[in-house]
Amino acid sequence: MRKLRLLLGDDHPLVRHGLRKVLEEQPAWEVVSEVGDGREAVREAIAHKPDVAILDVAMPLLNGIDATQQIVRRAPETRILMLSMHADEAYVMRAVQAGATGYMVKDAAGKELLTAIESVAAGRPYFSPAIERLLHDDRRSPASGFADRYDTLSAREREVFQLIAEAKSNKEVAVLLGISPATVETHRARILQKLDVHSIAEVVRYAARRGIIS
């Protein structure tokens, strides 16, 4: 019988270790890769094509939601379960819009994680009970209230935005993304214009408010 293949993404090694221990207690499951940042999550998903990728929302270099969007596009056979400290409808809707099949809060019980993975692996959406209540109590349509200037950024601009917010220089961003420093500067200028921010400090605050950096 083929094992359920999992990818685990979280930037805290102790958290990853604890999650991996829980997952590998399931005899029919195997963790094929564990990663500490969103860019590595995308690379590993493409390389290993796991059945389910379990991703933290707040990861360095590329956050879990933008990583989800790339994985869904480049490794469509992989389903995504998001883990987050944020029981907030805005985060949930962004994750779903990016292509995640499930979303659960990190303080949920270990048994719930197993249930969530089984559901997502079968193609069924899963949301933590706290998230379900939040969505049920909100009378707005799912698409309302969440669009903001960040949604106007292209996928590449979102990558540059997060790296800038993490205090990476133009040269460092260029090396990480395989583009020239001049191209990074062009992206930077467009990002500031689109978001209507005027300093790196404002970029950092904007990213922190959206949970892109912690």
Reading the helices and strands in chain order gives: EHEHEHEHEHEHHHHH
SS strand fraction: 5-15%
Number of separate strands = 6
Overall, the morphology is globular
Q: What is the CATH top level name of the largest domain?
A: Alpha Beta
Q: What's the helical proportion of residues?
A: 40-55%
The helix tally amounts to 10
- Output the radius of gyration: 17 Å
What do we call the CATH homologous superfamily of the largest domain? Response regulator
Descriptive overview:
The chain is α/β, with parallel strands linked by helices and 214 residues long. It folds into 2 domains: 4-137, Rossmann fold, CATH 3.40.50.2300; 149-209, Winged helix-like DNA-binding domain superfamily/Winged helix DNA-binding domain (Arc Repressor Mutant, subunit A, Orthogonal Bundle), CATH 1.10.10. Helix content is 51%, strand content 14%. It contains 10 helices and 6 strands, in the order E-H-E-H-E-H-E-H-E-H-E-H-H-H-H-H. It has helices spanning 13-24, 38-48, 64-74, 89-98, 110-121, 129-137, 155-165, 170-177, 181-195, 200-209, and strands at 4-9, 29-35, 52-56, 79-84, 102-105, 126-127. Strands 2-1-3-4-5-6 form a 6-stranded parallel beta sheet, sandwiched between helices. Strand 3, helix 3 and strand 4 form a beta-alpha-beta unit. Helix 3 (64-74) packs parallel to helix 4 and helix 7 (155-165) crosses helix 9. The relative contact order is 0.11.
